[in-house]
Amino acid sequence: MKNRLFLVFAMVMMAILASGCGKMPQESIRAAKSAVDAAKNAQADIYMASEYKALEDSLNVMMQKIEAENSKFMKDFGEVKTQLEALTVQAEKVTAAVPAKKEAVKTEAETMVTTIKDNLAATRTLLAKAPRGKEGRAAITQITGELNVIETRVKEVEAALKEDINYAEALDRLNAAQKSVTDINTELTEAIAKKKGR
Questions:
Q1: What SS3 class is residue 1?
Q2: 164-168, long-range: CB within 8 Å, 24+ apart, which pairs?
Q3: How far apart are CA 197 and CA 180, in angstroms?
């Protein structure tokens, strides 16, 4: 009789424990997924890419943990629930930080436009001093064409910066334009120095 009573008591305790910790944290899962989606909708994947990637990776790991825990007889979702709640808070912080980061990238792009325009003007000044000869004239024509293309691209990006665009992509385009102008400037400086050295 005593053994049966102990067995019944043990089974009741196991049932209580299993129902207390064994319930899948659906609300925490929903909240975490929603917070990560909100971060993406705020463009965290563009302006805070590494932070957003960490959120996605963490969510995937937690979903794998939930799947693994769900396959067990005695389920315990307590730790995963706590992690999901922490992930939700982190995703909300990332979402809140996106507008400032986006504005910083836009400002950097606007500054880059000014820098490139200055460098284009300096490069055109150098171009006027470039050696002229058979090869020199052809090179000057080619470089003038390249500078015109760069200037057109910069003007397009400058106009686009007034709209709500992907400022990170615009900044990448501007960095490429800046590199092209710098390369041309270096090439011209070397050609002029060579001419003076003769």
A1: coil
A2: 166/43, 166/46, 167/47, 167/102, 167/105, 167/106, 167/109, 168/46, 168/47, 168/105
A3: 26
Q: How many domains does the chain have?
A: 2
Q: pTM surpassing 0.90?
A: no
CA 131 to chain CA mean position, Å: 44
Instruction: Note whether residue 111 is domain-resident.
Output: yes
* Pair 78, 24: CB distance under 8 Å: no
Each residue of 151-160: pLDDT tens digit? Answer: 999 999 999 9
DSSP 8-state code for residue 164: S
Q: Which two tokens stand for residue 118?
A: 């200055």
Whether 5 is in a domain gets the answer no
Whether residues 47 and 119 share a domain: the answer is: no
